[in-house]
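Sequence, please.
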Protein backbone atom coordinates (compact mmCIF):
# COMPACT_ATOMS: atom_id res chain seq x y z
CA UNK A 1 0.00 0.00 0.00
CA UNK A 2 1.42 3.46 -0.83
CA UNK A 3 2.47 5.91 1.86
CA UNK A 4 -0.57 7.80 3.14
CA UNK A 5 -0.47 11.57 3.11
CA UNK A 6 -3.25 14.09 3.83
CA UNK A 7 -5.72 14.45 0.97
CA UNK A 8 -4.45 11.48 -1.03
CA UNK A 9 -6.75 9.17 -2.91
CA UNK A 10 -5.89 5.81 -4.41
CA UNK A 11 -4.86 6.28 -8.05
CA UNK A 12 -7.29 4.96 -10.64
CA UNK A 13 -10.11 2.47 -10.07
CA UNK A 14 -9.97 0.17 -7.07
CA UNK A 15 -8.26 -3.17 -7.78
CA UNK A 16 -10.37 -6.32 -7.94
CA UNK A 17 -8.88 -7.60 -4.68
CA UNK A 18 -10.06 -4.54 -2.72
CA UNK A 19 -12.47 -5.72 0.00
CA UNK A 20 -16.03 -4.50 0.29
CA UNK A 21 -18.75 -4.56 2.91
CA UNK A 22 -17.95 -6.25 6.22
CA UNK A 23 -14.63 -7.53 4.85
CA UNK A 24 -13.49 -3.91 4.46
CA UNK A 25 -14.64 -2.98 7.96
CA UNK A 26 -12.66 -5.91 9.33
CA UNK A 27 -9.39 -4.94 7.62
CA UNK A 28 -7.56 -2.64 10.07
CA UNK A 29 -5.18 -1.33 7.39
CA UNK A 30 -8.10 -0.08 5.25
CA UNK A 31 -10.95 0.48 7.70
CA UNK A 32 -12.01 4.05 8.48
CA UNK A 33 -15.07 3.15 10.56
CA UNK A 34 -17.64 5.92 10.76
CA UNK A 35 -15.38 8.18 8.65
CA UNK A 36 -16.29 6.49 5.36
CA UNK A 37 -17.97 9.13 3.19
CA UNK A 38 -21.49 8.66 1.79
CA UNK A 39 -20.05 8.09 -1.68
CA UNK A 40 -17.62 5.47 -0.33
CA UNK A 41 -20.43 3.75 1.54
CA UNK A 42 -22.53 3.60 -1.60
CA UNK A 43 -19.73 2.25 -3.81
CA UNK A 44 -18.14 -0.13 -1.30
CA UNK A 45 -21.21 -1.90 -0.02
CA UNK A 46 -21.22 -0.17 3.36
CA UNK A 47 -24.70 1.39 3.35
CA UNK A 48 -26.58 0.32 6.45
CA UNK A 49 -23.47 -1.18 8.04
CA UNK A 50 -22.45 2.08 9.72
CA UNK A 51 -24.30 4.77 11.69
CA UNK A 52 -25.63 7.53 9.37
CA UNK A 53 -23.34 10.29 10.62
CA UNK A 54 -20.04 10.64 8.74
CA UNK A 55 -17.36 11.34 11.34
CA UNK A 56 -14.14 13.22 10.81
CA UNK A 57 -10.96 11.59 12.04
CA UNK A 58 -10.76 14.37 14.62
CA UNK A 59 -14.17 13.37 16.00
CA UNK A 60 -13.06 9.77 16.16
CA UNK A 61 -9.90 10.76 18.06
CA UNK A 62 -12.05 12.66 20.55
CA UNK A 63 -14.24 9.58 21.07
CA UNK A 64 -11.20 7.37 21.64
CA UNK A 65 -9.68 9.79 24.15
CA UNK A 66 -12.95 10.11 26.06
CA UNK A 67 -13.16 6.35 26.49
CA UNK A 68 -9.43 5.96 27.15
CA UNK A 69 -9.46 8.54 29.94
CA UNK A 70 -12.46 6.90 31.57
CA UNK A 71 -10.36 3.76 32.17
CA UNK A 72 -8.15 3.82 35.27
CA UNK A 73 -6.23 0.55 34.89
CA UNK A 74 -3.07 0.87 32.73
CA UNK A 75 -3.49 -2.75 31.59
CA UNK A 76 -7.09 -2.14 30.53
CA UNK A 77 -5.94 0.95 28.66
CA UNK A 78 -3.33 -1.19 26.90
CA UNK A 79 -6.02 -3.70 25.90
CA UNK A 80 -8.24 -0.89 24.62
CA UNK A 81 -5.48 0.52 22.41
CA UNK A 82 -4.58 -2.94 21.09
CA UNK A 83 -8.23 -3.44 20.14
CA UNK A 84 -8.23 -0.09 18.36
CA UNK A 85 -5.10 -1.08 16.42
CA UNK A 86 -6.79 -4.34 15.44
CA UNK A 87 -9.77 -2.57 13.88
CA UNK A 88 -8.55 0.84 12.63
CA UNK A 89 -4.80 1.20 12.24
CA UNK A 90 -4.76 4.77 10.96
CA UNK A 91 -6.89 6.00 13.87
CA UNK A 92 -4.69 4.15 16.35
CA UNK A 93 -1.57 5.92 15.05
CA UNK A 94 -3.31 9.29 14.88
CA UNK A 95 -4.21 8.98 18.57
CA UNK A 96 -0.64 8.00 19.51
CA UNK A 97 1.06 10.67 17.42
CA UNK A 98 -1.11 13.48 18.74
CA UNK A 99 -0.92 12.37 22.39
CA UNK A 100 2.53 10.81 22.87
CA UNK A 101 3.05 11.70 26.53
CA UNK A 102 -0.26 10.06 27.42
CA UNK A 103 -0.12 7.07 25.09
CA UNK A 104 3.48 5.92 24.85
CA UNK A 105 3.72 4.83 28.52
CA UNK A 106 0.74 2.58 27.78
CA UNK A 107 1.76 1.05 24.45
CA UNK A 108 5.31 0.67 25.71
CA UNK A 109 7.18 1.14 28.99
CA UNK A 110 6.14 0.79 31.68
CA UNK A 111 2.76 -0.82 30.90
CA UNK A 112 4.08 -3.21 28.26
CA UNK A 113 5.96 -5.08 31.00
CA UNK A 114 2.71 -5.86 32.78
CA UNK A 115 1.09 -6.73 29.47
CA UNK A 116 3.85 -9.25 28.77
CA UNK A 117 3.44 -10.80 32.21
CA UNK A 118 -0.28 -11.22 31.50
CA UNK A 119 0.06 -11.93 27.78
CA UNK A 120 -1.61 -15.34 27.72
CA UNK A 121 -4.47 -13.99 29.81
CA UNK A 122 -5.22 -10.87 27.73
CA UNK A 123 -4.55 -12.32 24.26
CA UNK A 124 -7.23 -11.21 21.80
CA UNK A 125 -6.06 -11.63 18.22
CA UNK A 126 -2.91 -12.64 16.32
CA UNK A 127 -0.29 -10.01 15.64
CA UNK A 128 3.25 -10.65 14.41
CA UNK A 129 4.93 -13.94 13.60
CA UNK A 130 5.98 -16.82 15.84
CA UNK A 131 9.08 -18.81 14.89
CA UNK A 132 9.50 -21.71 17.28
CA UNK A 133 11.83 -24.61 17.89
CA UNK A 134 9.16 -26.79 16.28
CA UNK A 135 9.79 -24.96 12.97
CA UNK A 136 13.35 -26.18 12.49
CA UNK A 137 14.01 -26.89 8.81
CA UNK A 138 11.03 -24.84 7.60
CA UNK A 139 11.62 -21.34 9.01
CA UNK A 140 11.67 -19.73 5.57
CA UNK A 141 8.23 -21.23 4.90
CA UNK A 142 6.96 -19.74 8.15
CA UNK A 143 8.29 -16.31 7.17
CA UNK A 144 6.59 -16.58 3.78
CA UNK A 145 3.25 -16.82 5.57
CA UNK A 146 3.60 -13.15 6.50
CA UNK A 147 1.12 -11.40 4.18
CA UNK A 148 3.07 -8.20 3.52
CA UNK A 149 5.98 -8.58 1.12
CA UNK A 150 7.37 -5.09 1.75
CA UNK A 151 8.53 -5.80 5.31
CA UNK A 152 11.76 -3.87 5.90
CA UNK A 153 12.33 -4.10 9.67
CA UNK A 154 12.07 -7.07 12.01
CA UNK A 155 12.10 -6.72 15.78
CA UNK A 156 12.81 -10.12 17.31
CA UNK A 157 13.08 -11.37 20.88
CA UNK A 158 13.51 -14.79 22.43
CA UNK A 159 11.83 -13.53 25.59
CA UNK A 160 14.65 -14.47 27.96
CA UNK A 161 15.24 -11.04 29.46
CA UNK A 162 12.15 -8.89 29.09
CA UNK A 163 12.87 -5.41 30.49
CA UNK A 164 13.84 -6.00 34.12
CA UNK A 165 11.34 -8.83 34.49
CA UNK A 166 13.41 -11.80 33.35
CA UNK A 167 12.35 -14.84 31.32
CA UNK A 168 8.81 -14.43 30.00
CA UNK A 169 9.13 -16.85 27.10
CA UNK A 170 6.60 -16.34 24.30
CA UNK A 171 4.79 -13.79 26.44
CA UNK A 172 7.59 -11.43 25.47
CA UNK A 173 5.86 -10.92 22.10
CA UNK A 174 4.47 -7.68 23.51
CA UNK A 175 7.95 -6.16 23.17
CA UNK A 176 8.36 -6.51 19.37
CA UNK A 177 4.74 -5.43 18.88
CA UNK A 178 5.27 -2.34 21.03
CA UNK A 179 8.63 -1.47 19.46
CA UNK A 180 7.21 -1.57 15.97
CA UNK A 181 4.28 0.60 17.01
CA UNK A 182 6.92 3.12 18.06
CA UNK A 183 8.68 2.82 14.69
CA UNK A 184 5.49 4.08 13.06
CA UNK A 185 4.47 6.58 15.74
CA UNK A 186 7.88 8.13 16.27
CA UNK A 187 9.50 7.91 12.84
CA UNK A 188 6.76 7.23 10.33
CA UNK A 189 7.92 3.79 9.24
CA UNK A 190 4.88 2.40 7.44
CA UNK A 191 3.11 -0.32 9.47
CA UNK A 192 3.29 -2.71 6.53
CA UNK A 193 7.07 -2.43 6.56
CA UNK A 194 7.46 -3.79 10.08
CA UNK A 195 7.38 -7.37 11.31
CA UNK A 196 7.29 -8.39 15.01
CA UNK A 197 8.82 -11.83 15.60
CA UNK A 198 8.76 -14.06 18.66
CA UNK A 199 11.68 -16.52 18.51
CA UNK A 200 10.21 -19.14 20.83
CA UNK A 201 12.78 -21.64 22.06
CA UNK A 202 10.96 -22.44 25.30
CA UNK A 203 11.17 -20.93 28.76
CA UNK A 204 12.73 -21.76 32.11
CA UNK A 205 10.05 -19.80 33.96
CA UNK A 206 8.27 -22.43 36.07
CA UNK A 207 5.16 -20.30 36.63
CA UNK A 208 4.67 -19.95 32.88
CA UNK A 209 5.20 -23.66 32.25
CA UNK A 210 2.53 -24.38 34.83
CA UNK A 211 0.11 -21.68 33.57
CA UNK A 212 -2.69 -23.35 31.56
CA UNK A 213 -3.14 -20.15 29.53
CA UNK A 214 0.52 -19.78 28.55
CA UNK A 215 0.74 -19.59 24.74
CA UNK A 216 4.35 -20.60 24.10
CA UNK A 217 6.20 -23.88 23.79
CA UNK A 218 5.95 -25.83 27.03
CA UNK A 219 9.57 -26.90 27.24
CA UNK A 220 12.88 -25.80 28.70
CA UNK A 221 14.89 -23.37 26.64
CA UNK A 222 17.06 -24.61 23.83
CA UNK A 223 20.73 -23.84 24.41
CA UNK A 224 24.07 -24.38 22.76
CA UNK A 225 24.29 -25.78 19.23
CA UNK A 226 20.53 -26.33 18.90
CA UNK A 227 19.83 -22.68 19.70
CA UNK A 228 22.56 -21.41 17.39
CA UNK A 229 21.46 -23.56 14.46
CA UNK A 230 17.86 -22.41 14.75
CA UNK A 231 18.95 -18.77 15.01
CA UNK A 232 21.21 -19.16 11.98
CA UNK A 233 18.33 -20.67 10.00
CA UNK A 234 16.06 -17.82 11.06
CA UNK A 235 18.49 -15.03 10.16
CA UNK A 236 19.36 -16.61 6.83
CA UNK A 237 15.65 -16.94 6.09
CA UNK A 238 15.00 -13.27 6.88
CA UNK A 239 17.40 -12.23 4.13
CA UNK A 240 16.09 -14.86 1.73
CA UNK A 241 12.41 -13.95 2.14
CA UNK A 242 12.86 -10.21 2.71
CA UNK A 243 16.20 -9.31 1.08
CA UNK A 244 18.07 -6.61 2.98
CA UNK A 245 15.59 -6.47 5.87
CA UNK A 246 16.94 -4.86 9.06
CA UNK A 247 16.89 -7.13 12.13
CA UNK A 248 16.66 -5.55 15.57
CA UNK A 249 17.54 -7.87 18.47
CA UNK A 250 15.51 -7.05 21.55
CA UNK A 251 15.60 -8.30 25.14
CA UNK A 252 17.98 -11.22 24.69
CA UNK A 253 19.92 -12.34 27.78
CA UNK A 254 23.55 -11.23 28.04
CA UNK A 255 25.00 -14.62 27.14
CA UNK A 256 23.27 -14.49 23.74
CA UNK A 257 22.99 -10.75 23.11
CA UNK A 258 26.69 -9.91 22.77
CA UNK A 259 27.50 -13.13 20.94
CA UNK A 260 24.74 -12.75 18.34
CA UNK A 261 25.57 -9.12 17.68
CA UNK A 262 29.25 -9.92 17.25
CA UNK A 263 28.53 -12.87 14.97
CA UNK A 264 26.02 -11.24 12.63
CA UNK A 265 26.64 -7.48 12.60
CA UNK A 266 29.06 -7.76 9.65
CA UNK A 267 26.91 -10.26 7.76
CA UNK A 268 23.43 -8.72 7.74
CA UNK A 269 21.94 -5.31 8.61
CA UNK A 270 21.24 -5.82 12.31
CA UNK A 271 21.67 -4.20 15.70
CA UNK A 272 20.88 -4.81 19.36
CA UNK A 273 18.72 -2.05 20.79
CA UNK A 274 19.53 -2.91 24.42
CA UNK A 275 23.24 -2.48 23.70
CA UNK A 276 23.44 0.15 20.97
CA UNK A 277 20.14 2.01 21.23
CA UNK A 278 20.44 2.41 25.00
CA UNK A 279 24.01 3.58 24.53
CA UNK A 280 23.02 6.28 22.06
CA UNK A 281 20.12 7.67 24.08
CA UNK A 282 22.24 7.73 27.25
CA UNK A 283 25.15 9.45 25.55
CA UNK A 284 22.75 12.06 24.20
CA UNK A 285 21.54 12.69 27.77
CA UNK A 286 25.13 13.02 28.99
CA UNK A 287 25.91 15.53 26.23
CA UNK A 288 22.82 17.54 27.20
CA UNK A 289 23.85 17.47 30.87
CA UNK A 290 27.31 18.78 29.95
CA UNK A 291 25.69 21.76 28.26
CA UNK A 292 24.39 22.64 31.72
CA UNK A 293 27.58 21.96 33.67
CA UNK A 294 29.93 23.32 31.02
CA UNK A 295 32.17 20.30 31.52
CA UNK A 296 33.99 18.30 28.85
CA UNK A 297 33.22 14.65 28.21
CA UNK A 298 36.87 13.67 28.68
CA UNK A 299 36.79 15.04 32.24
CA UNK A 300 33.82 12.93 33.37
CA UNK A 301 33.87 9.75 35.41
CA UNK A 302 30.99 7.28 35.05
CA UNK A 303 29.90 4.66 37.56
CA UNK A 304 27.36 2.11 36.34
CA UNK A 305 25.07 0.10 38.56
CA UNK A 306 24.82 -2.97 36.36
CA UNK A 307 27.36 -4.55 34.03
CA UNK A 308 25.24 -6.15 31.33
CA UNK A 309 24.19 -5.22 27.82
CA UNK A 310 23.12 -1.67 28.58
CA UNK A 311 26.11 -0.75 30.74
CA UNK A 312 28.62 -2.18 28.30
CA UNK A 313 26.96 -0.58 25.30
CA UNK A 314 26.87 2.83 26.97
CA UNK A 315 30.46 2.56 28.17
CA UNK A 316 31.63 1.53 24.70
CA UNK A 317 29.95 4.51 23.04
CA UNK A 318 31.18 6.96 25.69
CA UNK A 319 34.68 5.57 25.22
CA UNK A 320 34.43 6.00 21.45
CA UNK A 321 33.22 9.58 21.89
CA UNK A 322 36.12 10.40 24.20
CA UNK A 323 38.54 8.87 21.70
CA UNK A 324 36.98 11.05 18.99
CA UNK A 325 37.75 14.00 21.23
CA UNK A 326 41.43 13.01 21.23
CA UNK A 327 41.66 10.86 24.35
CA UNK A 328 43.68 7.64 24.47
CA UNK A 329 41.37 4.60 24.38
CA UNK A 330 42.83 2.96 27.48
CA UNK A 331 42.48 6.20 29.44
CA UNK A 332 38.93 6.66 28.14
CA UNK A 333 37.88 3.18 29.28
CA UNK A 334 39.29 3.92 32.72
CA UNK A 335 36.69 6.68 33.01
CA UNK A 336 34.00 3.98 33.12
CA UNK A 337 33.46 1.74 36.16
CA UNK A 338 30.83 -0.90 36.83
CA UNK A 339 29.22 -2.46 39.87
CA UNK A 340 27.39 -5.77 39.44
CA UNK A 341 25.79 -8.21 41.87
CA UNK A 342 29.24 -9.12 43.23
CA UNK A 343 30.45 -5.57 43.73
CA UNK A 344 32.90 -3.42 41.82
CA UNK A 345 34.11 -5.03 38.59
CA UNK A 346 37.89 -5.18 39.02
CA UNK A 347 40.67 -6.99 37.20
CA UNK A 348 41.47 -9.37 40.07
CA UNK A 349 38.00 -10.94 39.98
CA UNK A 350 37.89 -14.52 38.76
CA UNK A 351 35.79 -15.77 35.81
CA UNK A 352 34.75 -12.36 34.49
CA UNK A 353 32.36 -12.43 31.54
CA UNK A 354 34.03 -11.35 28.30
CA UNK A 355 31.98 -8.16 27.93
CA UNK A 356 33.02 -6.94 31.40
CA UNK A 357 36.77 -7.31 30.95
CA UNK A 358 37.44 -4.00 29.16
CA UNK A 359 36.00 -2.21 32.21
CA UNK A 360 37.64 -4.34 34.89
CA UNK A 361 40.33 -1.97 36.19
CA UNK A 362 43.09 -2.38 38.75
CA UNK A 363 41.50 -1.55 42.09
CA UNK A 364 40.80 -3.20 45.45
CA UNK A 365 37.45 -4.94 45.63
CA UNK A 366 34.48 -2.81 46.78
CA UNK A 367 31.29 -4.63 47.66
CA UNK A 368 28.79 -1.82 48.10
CA UNK A 369 27.58 0.73 45.51
CA UNK A 370 27.51 3.49 48.12
CA UNK A 371 31.15 2.78 48.98
CA UNK A 372 32.07 2.73 45.29
CA UNK A 373 30.60 6.22 44.89
CA UNK A 374 32.53 7.46 47.90
CA UNK A 375 35.84 5.97 46.72
CA UNK A 376 35.64 6.60 42.95
CA UNK A 377 33.98 10.05 43.16
CA UNK A 378 32.12 9.82 39.82
CA UNK A 379 30.53 12.81 38.11
CA UNK A 380 27.70 10.57 36.86
CA UNK A 381 25.93 7.45 38.12
CA UNK A 382 23.96 5.40 35.62
CA UNK A 383 21.54 2.73 36.81
CA UNK A 384 20.95 -0.09 34.32
CA UNK A 385 20.89 -3.13 36.59
CA UNK A 386 17.16 -3.26 37.43
CA UNK A 387 17.93 -2.87 41.16
CA UNK A 388 15.01 -0.92 42.55
CA UNK A 389 15.75 1.92 44.99
CA UNK A 390 19.52 1.43 44.70
CA UNK A 391 20.12 5.18 44.41
CA UNK A 392 19.44 5.84 48.07
CA UNK A 393 19.23 9.19 49.78
CA UNK A 394 22.79 8.68 51.03
CA UNK A 395 24.06 7.99 47.50
CA UNK A 396 22.33 11.03 45.99
CA UNK A 397 23.47 13.32 48.82
CA UNK A 398 27.04 12.08 48.40
CA UNK A 399 26.91 12.69 44.64
CA UNK A 400 25.74 16.24 45.40
CA UNK A 401 28.62 16.82 47.78
CA UNK A 402 31.07 15.58 45.16
CA UNK A 403 29.57 17.52 42.23
CA UNK A 404 27.92 20.89 41.89
CA UNK A 405 25.45 19.37 39.39
CA UNK A 406 25.48 15.57 39.75
CA UNK A 407 24.36 13.52 36.76
CA UNK A 408 21.92 10.87 37.98
CA UNK A 409 20.39 8.53 35.42
CA UNK A 410 17.95 5.94 36.83
CA UNK A 411 17.40 4.08 33.56
CA UNK A 412 16.02 0.70 34.63
CA UNK A 413 12.45 -0.09 33.73
CA UNK A 414 9.63 -0.77 34.30
CA UNK A 415 8.96 1.81 37.01
CA UNK A 416 9.07 -0.83 39.75
CA UNK A 417 12.76 -1.38 38.92
CA UNK A 418 13.78 2.28 38.88
CA UNK A 419 16.86 3.10 40.97
CA UNK A 420 15.11 6.20 42.34
CA UNK A 421 12.22 8.45 41.41
CA UNK A 422 12.50 11.91 39.92
CA UNK A 423 11.07 13.42 43.09
CA UNK A 424 13.72 11.69 45.20
CA UNK A 425 16.56 12.75 42.92
CA UNK A 426 15.55 16.42 43.01
CA UNK A 427 14.67 16.51 46.72
CA UNK A 428 17.79 14.68 47.93
CA UNK A 429 20.07 16.77 45.73
CA UNK A 430 18.45 20.07 46.67
CA UNK A 431 17.28 20.52 43.07
CA UNK A 432 20.79 20.16 41.65
CA UNK A 433 20.53 16.73 40.02
CA UNK A 434 20.61 16.43 36.24
CA UNK A 435 18.16 13.56 36.07
CA UNK A 436 16.91 11.15 33.44
CA UNK A 437 14.94 7.95 33.86
CA UNK A 438 13.98 4.82 32.00
CA UNK A 439 10.34 5.11 33.04
CA UNK A 440 8.08 8.18 32.91
CA UNK A 441 7.77 10.47 35.93
CA UNK A 442 5.48 13.44 36.39
CA UNK A 443 6.88 16.99 36.70
CA UNK A 444 8.25 17.78 40.15
CA UNK A 445 7.79 21.01 42.10
CA UNK A 446 10.74 21.67 44.40
CA UNK A 447 11.76 24.84 46.20
CA UNK A 448 9.74 27.06 43.88
CA UNK A 449 11.06 25.45 40.69
CA UNK A 450 9.25 23.11 38.32
CA UNK A 451 11.36 20.26 36.97
CA UNK A 452 10.19 18.28 33.93
CA UNK A 453 12.13 14.99 33.85
CA UNK A 454 12.09 13.08 30.60
CA UNK A 455 12.78 9.45 29.83
CA UNK A 456 16.10 8.36 28.45
CA UNK A 457 13.99 6.09 26.30
CA UNK A 458 15.29 4.23 23.27
CA UNK A 459 12.22 5.42 21.38
CA UNK A 460 14.18 8.59 20.72
CA UNK A 461 16.84 6.58 18.87
CA UNK A 462 15.89 3.29 17.21
CA UNK A 463 12.94 4.57 15.12
CA UNK A 464 15.13 7.20 13.44
CA UNK A 465 17.97 4.71 12.98
CA UNK A 466 15.55 2.28 11.35
CA UNK A 467 13.99 4.93 9.12
CA UNK A 468 17.40 6.08 7.92
CA UNK A 469 18.71 2.56 7.31
CA UNK A 470 15.60 1.40 5.46
CA UNK A 471 15.32 4.50 3.29
CA UNK A 472 18.89 4.23 1.97
CA UNK A 473 18.87 0.41 2.02
CA UNK A 474 21.89 0.22 4.34
CA UNK A 475 23.67 -3.12 4.10
CA UNK A 476 25.04 -2.85 7.66
CA UNK A 477 24.20 -0.93 10.86
CA UNK A 478 27.40 0.44 12.44
CA UNK A 479 28.41 1.95 15.75
CA UNK A 480 29.20 5.21 13.96
CA UNK A 481 25.53 5.40 12.98
CA UNK A 482 24.56 5.26 16.64
CA UNK A 483 27.17 7.89 17.45
CA UNK A 484 25.62 10.14 14.80
CA UNK A 485 22.15 9.39 16.19
CA UNK A 486 23.23 10.31 19.74
CA UNK A 487 24.72 13.62 18.62
CA UNK A 488 21.65 14.43 16.52
CA UNK A 489 19.37 13.76 19.50
CA UNK A 490 21.49 15.92 21.80
CA UNK A 491 21.45 18.74 19.25
CA UNK A 492 17.63 18.55 19.24
CA UNK A 493 17.45 19.56 22.91
CA UNK A 494 16.62 23.25 23.19
CA UNK A 495 17.70 25.71 25.84
CA UNK A 496 14.14 25.87 27.14
CA UNK A 497 14.28 22.12 27.73
CA UNK A 498 17.47 22.41 29.76
CA UNK A 499 16.10 25.27 31.85
CA UNK A 500 13.29 23.03 33.12
CA UNK A 501 15.60 20.09 33.80
CA UNK A 502 14.78 18.18 30.60
CA UNK A 503 17.76 16.46 29.01
CA UNK A 504 15.67 15.24 26.08
CA UNK A 505 13.23 17.00 23.75
CA UNK A 506 9.48 16.82 24.17
CA UNK A 507 7.85 13.70 22.74
CA UNK A 508 5.58 16.06 20.79
CA UNK A 509 8.67 16.73 18.65
CA UNK A 510 9.76 13.11 18.36
CA UNK A 511 8.90 12.73 14.66
CA UNK A 512 11.00 15.78 13.80
CA UNK A 513 13.81 14.43 15.99
CA UNK A 514 13.57 11.00 14.33
CA UNK A 515 13.78 12.66 10.92
CA UNK A 516 16.94 14.46 12.01
CA UNK A 517 18.42 11.19 13.29
CA UNK A 518 17.43 9.32 10.13
CA UNK A 519 19.22 11.88 7.96
CA UNK A 520 22.33 11.68 10.18
CA UNK A 521 22.33 7.87 9.98
CA UNK A 522 21.85 7.96 6.21
CA UNK A 523 24.80 10.33 5.81
CA UNK A 524 26.99 7.84 7.68
CA UNK A 525 25.74 5.05 5.40
CA UNK A 526 26.78 7.05 2.35
CA UNK A 527 30.12 8.02 3.89
CA UNK A 528 30.90 4.38 4.76
CA UNK A 529 29.74 3.12 1.34
CA UNK A 530 26.97 1.05 2.93
CA UNK A 531 23.97 2.60 1.16
CA UNK A 532 22.14 0.70 -1.55
CA UNK A 533 20.92 3.79 -3.40
CA UNK A 534 22.69 6.83 -4.91
CA UNK A 535 22.88 9.78 -2.54
CA UNK A 536 19.99 12.14 -3.34
CA UNK A 537 20.48 15.88 -3.69
CA UNK A 538 17.85 16.57 -1.01
CA UNK A 539 18.15 13.80 1.57
CA UNK A 540 15.80 15.54 4.00
CA UNK A 541 13.02 15.65 1.42
CA UNK A 542 13.50 12.01 0.44
CA UNK A 543 13.42 10.94 4.09
CA UNK A 544 10.36 13.03 4.87
CA UNK A 545 8.55 11.59 1.85
CA UNK A 546 9.02 8.10 3.33
CA UNK A 547 7.23 8.95 6.57
CA UNK A 548 3.76 7.49 7.01
CA UNK A 549 0.98 9.91 7.91
CA UNK A 550 -2.12 8.20 9.32
CA UNK A 551 -4.55 10.49 7.50
CA UNK A 552 -7.36 8.63 5.79
CA UNK A 553 -7.07 7.84 2.08
CA UNK A 554 -10.04 8.51 -0.18
CA UNK A 555 -11.03 5.27 -1.88
CA UNK A 556 -13.38 6.62 -4.58
CA UNK A 557 -11.78 9.94 -5.59
Amino acid sequence: MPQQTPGDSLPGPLPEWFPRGMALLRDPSLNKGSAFTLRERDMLGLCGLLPPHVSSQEEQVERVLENFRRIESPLERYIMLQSLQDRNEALFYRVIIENPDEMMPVIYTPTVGLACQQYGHIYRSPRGLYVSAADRGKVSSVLRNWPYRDARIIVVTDGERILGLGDLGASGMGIPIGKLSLYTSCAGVHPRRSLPVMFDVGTNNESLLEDPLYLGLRQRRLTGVEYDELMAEFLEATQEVFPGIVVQFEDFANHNAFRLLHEYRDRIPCFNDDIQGTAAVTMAGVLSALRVTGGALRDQSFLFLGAGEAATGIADLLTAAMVEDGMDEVAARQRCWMVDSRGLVVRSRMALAEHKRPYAHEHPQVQDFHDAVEILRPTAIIGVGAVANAFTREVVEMMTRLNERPIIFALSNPTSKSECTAEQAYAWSGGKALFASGSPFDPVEFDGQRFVPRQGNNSYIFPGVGLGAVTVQASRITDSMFMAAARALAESVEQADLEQGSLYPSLLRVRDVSLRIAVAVARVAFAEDLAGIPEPADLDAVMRDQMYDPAYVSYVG
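The chain has three domains: 22-106, 107-268, 276-457.
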